């Protein structure tokens, strides 16, 4: 259980709420501001509207910015409607430019423009610059609050600069070196700076080999780069090499979370509808197309069964194993889909080799199919008294799982070659395709061995 000092989170929240009720506002203000912004936001969400209004009176717009930044976007929108226009603009002024841009991009254009107009001119211009970049690019998620140096500064001069500028910078662990044209020429770590002699020059401390990204780079590529190098931040440059901003690791975590959410939506054929705050109408509108499409695929499944009506009419017991075969093939295909999509996302698939990956999935499918077949060869004769039936089902599941893993692996590869998101090869789609193939295999084998039943 999370604790704050010697109290649980709930106990401390009740303590703060009691201070408000008892009108001990100075004590509340002191204790509230000592909390981490995440805990401040959690407490804020427990308040009734009247108590929230008191909170806005007790803390400054700058202090409220920390609370605001820790809230989800829908909660931020609700907060904005409860405060006056001037307080809102001052609060947005104190956000990092990338966070302010992300929030304002979610508002109606007129409302966003109204806030931008009331903001500090310099801050507003930074936010407008970020909002002008295409969505989901490095430029759109970078922040303008960073510290840049020149190569002729001494370590002591940089320390003095940090004392002045660090409070407003999003991170100071990396300090970027620019020339007189503001082109990125090097990077200095805070560790190297602190351990250097005060008279040493930045040019002797910096590393000239800087890994950077273009402002148009896709945000997921930036996330993978930061993950690969274990960076806390990555510089963003223009085509001319001018330092425009930095992307920090906290922004990357948001990008990866959004990407994972999108992939989950694609896997379940519900992209855009995984958020519990989405209305039922919107969720139905987003999910219905896939369901309807898969329903028509289901008609193909029904057609396959209809084609083997004679086989079923002679041995009705065959129908009992249809769900087993369809479910197993669909599950195996979805597992292979997850492996390939994840490999494509991380770039590990190219290192491994496509053919080797397909061969591995095929071998995996055969091994799983063999295990399942052997289990059925033991179980079916005991419960149904027919060894031939066990052979039919066993061979069918062996072949079905072998094919299903290949289908689950090859479909996202084809989609990726078409320059589409491989996650669009969603679980339900792969499952339906494997259902059809599994039934064809099952009834073909059953028809061939019918005379022995």
TrEMBL record:
NCBIfam families found in the cross-reference section: mgtE (TIGR00400)
UniProt-listed Pfam families: CBS (PF00571), MgtE (PF01769), MgtE_N (PF03448)
Subunit structure: Homodimer.
Protein family according to the UniProt entry: Belongs to the SLC41A transporter family.
Gene encoding the protein: mgtE
Domain CBS residues, every copy: 142-205, 206-264
Membrane-protein topology: Multi-pass membrane protein
PROSITE patterns recorded: CBS
Protein's organism: Halalkalibacter alkalisediminis
Function as written in the Swiss-Prot or TrEMBL entry: Acts as a magnesium transporter.
Name of the molecule in the record: Magnesium transporter MgtE
């Amino acid at each position: 259980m999370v604790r704050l000092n010697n109290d649980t989170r709930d106990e401390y929240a009740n303590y703060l709420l009691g201070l408000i009720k008892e009108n001990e506002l100075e004590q509340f203000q002191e204790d509230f501001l000592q909390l981490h912004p995440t805990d401040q936001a959690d407490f804020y969400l427990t308040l009734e509207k009247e108590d929230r209004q008191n909170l806005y009176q007790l803390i400054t717009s700058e202090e409220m910015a920390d609370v605001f930044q820790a809230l989800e976007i829908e909660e931020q929108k609700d907060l904005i409607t409860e405060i006056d226009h001037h307080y809102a603009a001052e609060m947005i002024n104190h956000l990092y430019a990338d966070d302010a841009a992300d929030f304002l991009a979610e508002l109606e254009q007129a409302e966003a423009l109204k806030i931008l107009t009331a903001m500090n001119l310099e801050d507003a211009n930074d936010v407008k610059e970020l909002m002008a970049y295409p969505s989901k690019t490095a430029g759109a998620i970078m922040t303008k609050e960073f510290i840049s140096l020149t190569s002729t500064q001494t370590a002591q001069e940089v320390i003095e600069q940090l004392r002045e500028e660090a409070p407003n910078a999003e991170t100071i662990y990396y300090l970027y070196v620019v020339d007189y044209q503001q082109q990125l020429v090097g990077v200095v770590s805070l560790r190297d700076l602190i351990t250097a002699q005060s008279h040493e020059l930045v040019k002797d401390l910096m590393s000239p080999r800087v890994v950077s990204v273009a402002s148009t780079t896709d945000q997921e590529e930036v996330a993978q780069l930061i993950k690969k190098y274990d960076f806390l931040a990555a510089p963003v440059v223009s085509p001319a090499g001018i330092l425009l901003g930095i992307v920090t690791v906290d922004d990357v975590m948001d990008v990866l979370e959004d990407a994972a959410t999108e992939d989950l939506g694609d896997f379940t054929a519900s992209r855009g509808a995984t958020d519990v705050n989405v209305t039922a109408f919107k969720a139905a509108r987003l999910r219905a197309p896939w369901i309807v499409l898969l329903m028509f695929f289901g008609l193909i499944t029904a057609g396959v069964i209809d084609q083997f009506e004679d086989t079923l009419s002679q041995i009705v017991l065959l129908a009992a194993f249809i769900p087993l075969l369809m479910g197993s093939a669909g599950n195996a295909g979805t597992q292979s889909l997850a492996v390939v999509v994840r490999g494509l996302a991380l770039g590990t698939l190219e290192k491994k080799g496509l053919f080797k990956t397909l061969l591995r999935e095929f071998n995996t499918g055969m091994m799983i199919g063999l295990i399942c077949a052997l289990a059925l060869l033991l179980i079916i004769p005991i419960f149904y008294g027919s060894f031939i039936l066990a052979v039919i089902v066993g061979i069918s599941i062996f072949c079905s799982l072998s094919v299903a893993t290949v289908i689950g692996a090859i479909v996202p590869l084809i989609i990726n070659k078409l320059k589409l998101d491989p996650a669009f090869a969603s679980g339900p789609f792969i499952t339906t395709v494997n259902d059809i193939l599994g039934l064809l295999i099952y009834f073909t084998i059953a028809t061939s061995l019918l005379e022995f039943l």
